[in-house]
Amino acid sequence: MFGDSSSGVERSVEQTLGHLRAIDTASTATDQPLTLEDLYRQQRMRMVRLAILLVDEPATAEDVVQEAFTGLYRNWSGLRDAKAAIGYLRTAVVNGSRSVLRRRKTAREYQPPHQADARSAESLAMLTAEHQAVVAALGELPPRQREVLVLRYYGNLTEAEISEATGVSKGTVKSTASRGLEALQKVMRSH
């Protein structure tokens, strides 16, 4: 189903996450949001999808996004403009997702490991079998590699924007993306 080259895997990741991005972009107004309510209406589902790709659980993703919007509300008066608000939300979602994953790891240390909940049928219904395989393989990557690939191909962010959202250097973003694509290729070959 997939080529043996890493560029084939990169193409599959780009197509899958690009497809999801296109769905979100089609439902987002082109004007910059002026109010917190506008921002919530225009960005909420996009942020939820971003969180789902990072934490692999819709209910938890909703909680992460709700916390991000709550933090944005508390800091609304200190933001430069609506574009800064979107960056704030993206960073808050990434950081909230990291916290969730850390708590999961801590919980697993005290309990027997468990399988992550299967994705809902609705969340993958619009994806082809190849796209579903890519999303499933993303779930098996280490958190930082998954973050970088999701922000790059779903978020359509530059290395600089990913660096800002994740708090790591641009060089680390670039090397993590490269290692992530290689790891993704290995996971997809093994299935």
Automatic annotation (TrEMBL):
<dbReference type="Pfam" id="PF04542">
    <property type="entry name" value="Sigma70_r2"/>
</dbReference>
<dbReference type="InterPro" id="IPR013249">
    <property type="entry name" value="RNA_pol_sigma70_r4_t2"/>
</dbReference>
<dbReference type="InterPro" id="IPR036388">
    <property type="entry name" value="WH-like_DNA-bd_sf"/>
</dbReference>
<keyword id="KW-0238">DNA-binding</keyword>
<dbReference type="Pfam" id="PF08281">
    <property type="entry name" value="Sigma70_r4_2"/>
</dbReference>
<dbReference type="InterPro" id="IPR013325">
    <property type="entry name" value="RNA_pol_sigma_r2"/>
</dbReference>
<dbReference type="InterPro" id="IPR007627">
    <property type="entry name" value="RNA_pol_sigma70_r2"/>
</dbReference>
<dbReference type="InterPro" id="IPR013324">
    <property type="entry name" value="RNA_pol_sigma_r3/r4-like"/>
</dbReference>
<dbReference type="InterPro" id="IPR039425">
    <property type="entry name" value="RNA_pol_sigma-70-like"/>
</dbReference>
<keyword id="KW-0731">Sigma factor</keyword>
<protein>
    <submittedName>
        <fullName>RNA polymerase sigma-70 factor (Sigma-E family)</fullName>
    </submittedName>
</protein>
<dbReference type="InterPro" id="IPR014325">
    <property type="entry name" value="RNA_pol_sigma-E_actinobac"/>
</dbReference>
<dbReference type="InterPro" id="IPR014284">
    <property type="entry name" value="RNA_pol_sigma-70_dom"/>
</dbReference>
<dbReference type="GO" id="GO:0003677">
    <property type="term" value="F:DNA binding"/>
</dbReference>
<feature type="domain" description="RNA polymerase sigma-70 region 2">
    <location>
        <begin position="39"/>
        <end position="105"/>
    </location>
</feature>
<comment type="similarity">
    <text>Belongs to the sigma-70 factor family. ECF subfamily.</text>
</comment>
<dbReference type="GO" id="GO:0016987">
    <property type="term" value="F:sigma factor activity"/>
</dbReference>
<keyword id="KW-0805">Transcription regulation</keyword>
<dbReference type="GO" id="GO:0006352">
    <property type="term" value="P:DNA-templated transcription initiation"/>
</dbReference>
<feature type="domain" description="RNA polymerase sigma factor 70 region 4 type 2">
    <location>
        <begin position="132"/>
        <end position="184"/>
    </location>
</feature>
<keyword id="KW-0804">Transcription</keyword>
